[in-house]
Amino acid sequence: MSRNGQAFDRYLEINRLFNLRKGETAVVTTEEMLEKLGISERQWREDVKKLKEMGAPLAYDGRKRGWRYTEPFNFSDNIPLTVEDIYNLRLAVSTLAQLNQIADFKDLPQTVNKIRKSVGRWVDHEAQHKAIYFDPLPHYEGSRHLPFFMEAIEKERQVQFDYFSFQATAPKNYLFDPYFLRQHHQRWYVGGWSHDPNEQFIRTFPLERIEGEPLLTGSFIDFAQKPKDFNPVTYWQHVIGINRPAKGPVEAVILQFNRVQGKYFESQPFYQPYQILERTEEKLVVQLDLMIEIELKRKIASYGDELLVLSPASLKEEMTRFFQKAAQRYGSETS
Questions:
Q1: Is 262 buried (19+), middle (13-18) or exposed (0-12) by CB count in 10 A?
Q2: Where are the beta strands (DSSP E) in the chain?
Q3: Domain limits at 330?
Q4: What pLDDT is stored for residue 235 in this prediction?
Q5: Average pLDDT of 84-110?
Q6: Is the CB of residue 290 less than 8 Å from the CB of residue 241?
Q7: What total of structural domains would you count in the chain?
Q8: pLDDT of residue 106
Q9: What local confidence, expressed as pLDDT, does residue 136 receive?
């Protein structure tokens, strides 16, 4: 911790001690303060001067030979921020501002603007130009359902809704126990137990494909309970996407990157943990323990000829067929 950081922590502790003392016990002697804080008398005099500059109502009681507050005082309202603090706050505010486009968080934009203005006042040399940029967020229709599902999850309420899959020709009605919300690839998903007779497992639904208004129909205690083995922390442990196969086994997926893509993968892996099996000047071979699902296949396909599947054989064969079909399609389009 920096020297300034230590001083601020000490000021907070001094403030706490004085605010705890009331009535006849309001006085804190210099000796007691030195012992509690582990500082010298010279440091204590400097702290008293600094606290008074910040507005602390410190006064010395000669009769009781100690210090006290003449009135309640909240030191946290007067803590000065370092330049590093300001930059950290700017980054946090800029990140939070990305949620402004979610219409259902109606008060959030005003809150973010208040924080941004306050941060601007805390530093005299605030940059006039924008220094942080994010990928623009698309308009997301499904966000209007977020408050509904947040309430349903917190109150353990069963819900009913119409879901229109891209593969279907008409919406399908679902009875559903919502357990969690997750943001993935700029979309919001609700996950939980599907009561569809053909499913009866935990699955996720993208909110933008829920049509009309979902309904609260009951509570979990009146219907099925959560599966005993469900753990939201480990649910996505062996998948890189949002959809976990209902009964998929975890397999050792061995991938070989070329030299450049291997460096990119190590700097920002698309899945962790991973095990490096081989690293040379020409290639990087890693093992990922994963369930084989559609987003893993799409991720592999996105690397083209810069990535090779070594194992399992079934995944290697499937990706071979994928690239052969893609090559045939490109050939037919250009002939």
A1: buried
A2: 58-61, 66-69, 157-163, 172-184, 187-194, 202-206, 210-219, 250-258, 275-279, 283-291, 307-311
A3: 250-334
A4: 84
A5: 59
A6: no
A7: 4
A8: 52
A9: 61
